Every structure is written in structure tokens, then in C-alpha cells.
Amino acid sequence: MARKNRDPYGDLNREAEEEAPPPVPCWLCGRPTGGTIVWHHPVPKSRGGRDVVPMHPICQQTLIANFTNSELQRHGMDVEGLLLNPAVRKFVDWVANKDPDFTAPQAKKQR
Predict the structure, then answer these.
(1) What are the pLDDT digits (tens) for 16-51?
(2) Which residues does the annotated region (Disordered) include (predicted)?
(3) Rounded-to-10 torsion of CA 48, 52, 57, 62
């Protein structure tokens, strides 16, 4: 008589796969993060920053392109202060309806 291959924990494994945790929102734009999450230091590590926040890679690239480390240190964890910059506000408004895994080339840092 042949044995049936039954996984006694099969139902538990299927439940765990079905209940994926909700995506973490991006710190800058507020959209849900996709497959790639960048853990960004709002205050740069070189300036004593220890806290990290989840971001899309494209959002992090935008911050790096528009602010120096000194400016990021001054803003700290204040997202609203960063959004007062017209270039960042324009970017966030533009990216608001894009897919969470959307990526595009960014402009070079202007000095």
C-alpha cells in the first residue's frame, strides 16, 4: 500500500504566504515601497545620523541630487522642510502616480 505524501504543516505554510505584510510607506513621497527598499539616513552618517527610514531608490537619488550633507543635517527628520524645496516638491508630485518599483535616471548634483 502506497503512502500519500501529506505535509502536516502545509496549511500553515499557505496561510503565511497569503498574509504578506503590508508595504512600508516611503519616507519622502508616502507611496508604498516596492521590491527594492533603500534604508536612508535622513541625517548623514558623516554628520552623526543614526536613524534610518525606508525610501524608494529614486526618492533617495532625488534627495542626494538636491541637498548637501550639511543641508540634510539641518533638516534632520523633517520631511515637510525638505518638501518646501521646489525641485523636491515637483518630483514628489510627478512620482505620486507611478508604480512603486518605478525608476528613472536622475539629474546630476548641481553645485
Answers:
(1) 556 677 889 999 999 999 888 999 999 999 999 899
(2) 1-24
(3) -50
Q: What pLDDT, on a 0 to 100 scale, did the predictor assign at position 71?
A: 93
Are the C-beta atoms of residues 49 and 41 closer than 8 Å to each other?
yes
pLDDT for residue 13: 57
**Beta carbons within 10 angstroms of residue 27's beta carbon:** 22
Helices (H), the chain: 10-18, 57-66, 69-75, 79-83, 86-95
The alpha carbons of the chain give a radius of gyration, in whole angstroms, of: 20
Is residue 57 within 8 Å of residue 101, measured between CB atoms?
Answer: no
